[in-house]
Design goal:
heterodimer, A: alpha+beta, 5-stranded mixed barrel, 17 strands, B: alpha+beta, 5-stranded mixed sheet, 4-stranded antiparallel sheet, RNA binding (chain B), RNase_PH (chain B), cytoplasm (chain B), Ribosomal RNA-processing protein 41 (chain B), ExoRNase_PH_dom2_sf (chain B)
Chain lengths: 346, 245
């Protein structure tokens, strides 16, 4: 007994172009007068390249394909077909079929530069939130200890663990190892990594950061803002801070110190919790960069070095024309559009 | 008017469904908003994330938790419903159980998926709207699901009797007035299949009528799935186009 269901009355507003009858998707499940057919043929994935599959959609029933991420096999009774479990695009690697979701949580990989926040201090390690399904661990032995990089960890360090990182501290680190169930272990054994200060923290979707050669950018800003460092964590956590000159240079100026003393001072500064004096101009430019990155992510444009630079330029031009960056999102859209236009030109 | 319900719909007509994905930009991994008639529901999904408490750690799968919040202004009377309210807890358990069976939880061991639902306005079919909103938010969060879970309500008018003695048609997608008047049920199915994952009824109805009610509910679910699917595709296309530039 097929039951006919009358679709709801059409709903049209000026802002929304939602109209199911003229919907240009890959495939329509119902005929044009909006009646659903109960005995329709099994649904098939849109054959179009770049089409979107949605959960429950049969991707293929060809047995030559292997099932990858984002798919599952239908129960054996109805033939082994591969069914999507995510909304996203199909990616094929040789004979492996997988679905890339449109939006997903960060999955750590070795070598990723991540920005994280300390959640918990344990006896010999910290637990760090890196926006992944599990929090990462940072071992006391995988950080730079004050008094030289090559110093051995002692019991005194264990007792003073909070002087290095305490709950709520932000840090930039690299994923060192992954356990077989996906738990990440971080390290900060380089002067590039360590505690973050002098700036603002922001988050975007993990998939919106493009993987690059270097995730630490230094952007020269105008309006007397000086240089600004941007730490684009692959996990979608971003820190934008006033540029700090490499510690070794700053300490040798002024006073001459022995090389061991220098290391000690440098290391102590690494774990300082006190912000430097940041001029209003620098603060303004940091805020502008944060707005640009947020607008790029909101506009669906992947964030990378080029786009941050172009976006910043575009934002400055808007600013020079006397346009205030409003909270309505319109300014953000204009800046993103301008940045994209710039990229097409170059 | 002959054959029309109090809001002018036919027995098999759905109310207007408007849905949106990625409505919230902060913290939540996925979010959605759905309007079914005047029932309005907002849903945020976080996870898979570190479980908030030790009890929620399962060694081989993810834990699904659900939080439901009724806005005090959502109903006809201003009622504040706390965390321990019976109705709130019932909804939470129903949604949590439904989704535990549909989310591929074995992929995320020792983690937690939190579905947080805010009911902004109630006009019948609250559970159905909550389930639909949660499905959309989970899809937006990129959490693997077996298929869409779509829910719909169906009611059975008791006052109208046919001359020939055959039972009258059940009513699809009841609104608040109908819901408080006639027995109704909420049915949720997995995708296009007629597999029921949730079925709830709080009234008494004659057993002969039940089958027809469920059948109408299931067909309604299939229709709702089509509407939700087209929104997911529209949203996805929009997103891909932006990235393609």
């Amino acid at each position: 007994m097929p039951i006919q269901i009358i679709s709801p009355a059409p709903f049209v507003t000026a802002a929304d172009d939602y109209d199911e009858e003229h919907e240009g998707g890959v495939r329509l499940d119902f005929d044009n007068d909006g009646d659903v057919l109960m005995d329709e043929a099994p649904r098939r994935a849109g054959g179009q390249a770049g089409g979107i599959v949605t959960p429950g959609e049969v991707v293929t029933d060809d047995p030559q394909w292997m099932r990858g991420h984002g798919t599952y096999l239908s129960p054996a009774t109805s033939g082994q077909s591969i069914i999507s479990s995510l909304a996203g695009t199909i990616s094929k690697t040789n004979k492996l079929l997988s679905i890339r979701a449109l939006k997903f949580r960060y999955i750590p990989e070795i070598g990723d530069l991540v920005v994280g926040r300390i959640l918990e201090v344990q006896t010999k390690r910290w637990r760090v939130d890196i926006a992944a399904p599990h929090s990462a661990t940072l071992l006391l032995s995988s950080i730079n200890l004050p008094g030289g990089i090559l110093r051995k960890r002692t019991s005194t360090d264990e007792l003073q663990i909070r002087t290095f990182f305490s709950e709520g501290d932000l840090l930039v680190a690299e994923v060192q190892t992954l356990s077989n169930d996906g738990l990440a272990s971080l390290h900060t054994r380089s002067l590039k990594y360590g505690k973050l200060r002098n700036g603002v923290f922001m988050t975007i979707d993990a998939g919106m950061v493009r993987r690059m050669k270097s995730h630490v950018l230094t952007l020269p800003t105008s309006n007397g803002g000086g240089d600004v460092d941007i730490y684009l964590g692959v996990n979608g956590y971003i820190y934008i801070a006033k540029h700090t000159t490499p510690l070794t240079e700053s300490t040798t100026e002024g006073k001459s110190v022995s090389i061991t003393r220098l290391e000690e001072e440098a290391s102590e500064a690494i774990y300082s919790n006190v912000n430097e004096e940041i001029s209003p101009e620098t603060r303004g430019e940091i805020a502008r960069i944060a707005c640009v990155i947020a607008a790029l992510a909101k506009g669906g444009v992947k964030v990378d070095e080029e786009m941050v630079e172009l976006g910043y330029e575009a934002a400055l031009e808007e600013f020079l024309q006397g346009v205030e960056w409003g909270g309505d999102g319109e300014a953000g859209k204009r800046v993103v559009a301008a940045a994209l236009a710039k990229r097409r030109l170059s | 008017m002959e054959g029309l319900r109090n809001d002018g719909r036919r027995w098999n007509e759905l109310r207007r469904i408007h849905c949106q994905l990625s409505t919230s930009s902060t913290n939540a991994d996925g979010s959605s908003y759905i309007e079914q008639g005047f029932t309005k529901v907002l849903c945020n999904v976080t996870g898979p994330a570190e479980p908030s408490s030790r009890q929620k750690v399962k060694q081989d799968s993810a834990t699904v938790t659900c939080e439901v919040y009724f806005a005090a202004f959502s109903g006809t009377d201003r009622i504040k419903r706390g965390r321990n309210d019976k109705k709130v807890q019932e909804l939470q358990t129903a949604i949590q159980k439904t989704f535990s069976s549909v989310i591929l939880t074995h992929l995320f061991s020792r983690s937690e998926i939190t579905i947080s639902i805010h009911i902004l306005s109630q006009d019948g079919g609250t559970l159905a709207a909550c389930i639909n909103a949660a499905t959309l938010a989970l899809i937006d969060a990129g959490i693997p699901l077996k298929d869409y879970v779509c829910a719909c309500t169906a009611g059975q008018s008791t006052s109208i009797f046919d001359n020939e003695g055959s039972s009258p048609d059940p009513w699809l997608d009841v609104n608040y007035l109908e819901e408080s008047d006639i027995p109704s049920l909420t049915v949720a199915t997995v995708g296009d299949s007629e597999k029921i994952v949730a079925l709830s009824m709080e009234n008494k109805v004659r057993i002969e009528r039940l089958e027809a009610m469920i059948a109408v509910g299931i067909s309604g679910c299939a229709k709702v799935r089509g509407i939700m699917d087209s929104e997911v595709r529209r949203h996805g296309k929009e997103k891909l186009e932006a990235q393609g530039e």
